[in-house]
Design a protein that fits this description.
Blueprint: H1 3-17, E1 25-27, E2 34-39, E3 46-50, H2 63-76, H3 91-104, E4 111-116, H4 119-130, E5 135-140, H5 145-153, E6 157-161, H6 166-174, E7 180-186, H7 198-207, E8 211-215, H8 230-234, E9 241-246, E10 256-261, H9 262-271, H10 273-276, H11 283-297, H12 299-322, E11 338-344, H13 346-358, E12 361-362, E13 364-366, E14 376-381, H14 388-402
Helix pairs in contact: 2-11, 3-11, 4-5, 11-12, 12-14, 13-14
Bound molecules: pyridoxal-5'-phosphate.
Pyridoxal-5'-phosphate (PLP) is lined by residues 118-120, 123, 144, 146, 186, 190, 215, 217-218, 246, 248, 256.
């Protein structure tokens, strides 16, 4: 075997030795709370009740969206045939962008939107295009990997500010005389579920003449009266706002959009390389997304958001009742579908996850360096499609697992 392959094997073996090797599982059935899953390398699928999907409204396998997808494929075919600037930009893409611009019009003056294949690409596109050599990017410490990678791709200098620390950010902005400044933050922190202080970030952007780039991957569809996300929930309004929403989570399909003043969108069309140098997503995806937006803003969306809120309240109440009295595990405040149950050390997180697994329950265990040392957690993600009984099963299993003395972790 070549030395190059040996090196890679050595690195994989090292991950294995630290229990850090990631393994995929194969979903045999559609996205839903109960799914048949086969762990790669094994043959027998298991039916698991999962609490780790991003399908917050339960739309990922909705028949109306599958029908819209099929209709879109019948009308436009399966492939877009090219990039957006060279033939790939279909009527369905244009309609979706217009619809999303209308959605964001109350929050961004002269709003337009631009559809990207994924949220990862949208973040790379926005930060690399707006973050030119003269710019400084102020990046929230807990930002998603795609924002971190976007900042790396940008020619701008990058300064990280401490988590939700408005005073520190204010001072950093005040000390900076770059002609272009970008404040960049997740709206909902993906490992914690709580909201960034977006109002205050926007006030800083106004005061220091900066852009505010907000990634609402976990808020879009979920927050706000009609699901328009953090901008609607908080009533934001500014031409400095550059909003990214992803469409593969609550919207149940795939893709992402950037909404901003039309001048920003015009500029991105010219300069955002992850927009320009890739094949446009299939028009059928955009067509299905139009149907998804109709569901999200209508009665069904409202009912699903209410169901999700009921499951969140039920879970929080249930878990608080089974938390150990010694304070060794806790559930921080979170108003979103992401509910972090912090258990402290890695071994306890892994043990709890294994105990849940043995009962047919799947919850992600998140460990450092993804989260700070001492805050290893079970990241519980709820969906409108979870039933009351699903949450009871999880709370019961957590009660058993958390009541076991810590020494058993050894
Ligand atoms: C999921 C996620 C993304 C990436 O979106 P994709 O459409 O899955 O590529 C970006 N930002 C945040 C905060 C996310 O959670």
């Amino acid at each position: 075997m070549s030395r190059l392959l040996e090196r890679l094997q050595g690195e994989i073996a090292a991950l294995d030795a630290q229990s850090l090797r990631r393994r995929r599982q194969i979903a045999e059935t559609a996205c839903a709370p109960e799914q048949s899953l086969t762990l790669a390398g094994t043959t027998a699928p298991r039916t698991m009740l999962g609490f780790s999907s991003n399908d917050y409204l339960g739309l990922a396998a909705h028949p109306a969206l599958a029908a819209a997808w099929a209709e879109g494929a019948a009308r436009y075919g399966t492939g877009s045939g090219g990039s957006h600037l060279i033939l790939g930009h279909s009527r369905a893409h244009a309609q979706l962008e217009e619809r999303l611009a209308d959605w964001m019009a109350p929050f961004i003056p002269e709003a337009q939107s631009l559809f990207f294949c994924t949220g990862y690409m949208a973040n790379l596109g926005v930060l690399s295009a707006l973050g030119g050599a003269e710019a400084v990017i102020f990046s929230e410490a807990l930002n998603h990997a795609s924002l971190i990678d976007g900042a790396r791709l940008a020619k701008a200098r990058v300064e990280r500010y401490p988590h939700c620390d408005i005073d520190a950010l204010d001072a950093m902005l005040g000390a900076c005389d770059a002609p272009v400044k970008l404040i960049v933050s997740d709206a909902v922190f993906s490992m914690d579920g709580h909201l960034a202080p977006v109002h205050q970030l926007l006030a800083l952007a106004e005061r220091h003449d900066a852009w505010l780039v907000v990634d609402d991957a976990h808020g879009f569809g979920v927050l706000g009266d009609t699901g328009r996300g953090v901008v609607q929930a908080l009533g934001l309004h500014s031409e400095r706002l550059v909003l990214i929403g992803t469409l593969g989570k609550a919207a149940g399909v795939s893709g992402a959009f950037v909404a901003a003043h039309r001048t920003v969108i015009d500029y991105l069309v010219q300069r955002a390389r992850p927009y320009i140098f890739t094949t446009a997503a299939p028009p059928a995806v955009a067509h299905a997304l139009l149907a998804s937006l109709t569901l999200i803003e209508g009665e069904e969306g409202a009912a699903r958001r209410a169901a999700l809120q009921a499951r969140i309240a039920q879970l929080r109440e249930g878990v608080k009742a089974v938390l150990p009295a010694d304070g060794s595990a806790w559930l921080p405040e979170s108003p979103t579908a992401i509910q972090p149950l912090i258990v402290g050390d890695n071994a306890r997180a892994m043990r709890t996850m294994a105990q849940l697994d043995a009962r047919g329950l799947r919850v992600g265990a998140i460990r450092p360096p993804t989260v700070p040392v001492g805050t290893a957690r079970l990241r519980i993600a709820l969906s409108a499609s979870h039933s009351r009984a699903d949450v009871v099963r999880l709370v019961d299993a957590l009660g058993v697992a958390l009541s076991q003395p810590m020494q058993e972790a050894a």
